[in-house]
Amino acid sequence: MSTPELMLVESSRAGPTSFAPDLEKKGYTVRIEHTARRALSTLKNYTPDLVVIDAASLRTSGFRMCRNIRATLNGTPILLVTEEGKTAEPQSGASLTLVQPFTPRKLLNGVARLLPFEEGNCLRAGPIKLNLTQKRASCGAREDKLTPKQAKLLETFIQNSGKLLSRRFLINHVWETDFLGDTRTLDVHMSWLRRVIEPNPARPRYLKTIRGMGYRLDVPEEGKK
Fold first, then answer.
1. pLDDT digits (tens, 9 = 90+) for 89-126
2. Rounded CA gap, 146 and 49, in Å?
3. Half-sphere exposure (CA, 13 Å, Cβ side) for 131?
């Protein structure tokens, strides 16, 4: 099981009030940035599983920061921490807002709630994640339950990311048959997968059709846009 990666945006003055120790003790990998500008720069080449914004320590509402990060990450969950007296803004882009004061347990429960892939045997290719145990897939903020065949098809693509897979190979590998008389089943399953992982299924960004040849899963390489 891969360790969930979190970005924590907090003031350099957070010191003993930093959330990092509690998150690391829970087993998360935590990357800390001290300004919104630095966080946005890092997120151009890094996609965490969750972003935690301690707006209270930064002495800001955090709403603008949330909107900017939401636009950059296209759906990665954001947990926003605001100071006492602040009210959540529906259009802030935050997936969950916690208002101080609260206990470390409430913070950890909030993080776990936004990390559906914390448990189980998971595969990942770029922003696409597949929980083999739960047969759940996600890309950004969207998460869906898959049928066994859908999960097997996505597993095949993730394990062969960047490789051209022929229709014959996919039908043989997923449905365990060489019969190509009716390939509509494959087309339907491809359509279902695109609804789960593509921002715009009509114009696939990840699951590409290579005309006359088959399909290929294209995801950004680590460290590249």
1. 666 778 888 988 999 999 998 898 887 554 457 888 98
2. 20
3. 18
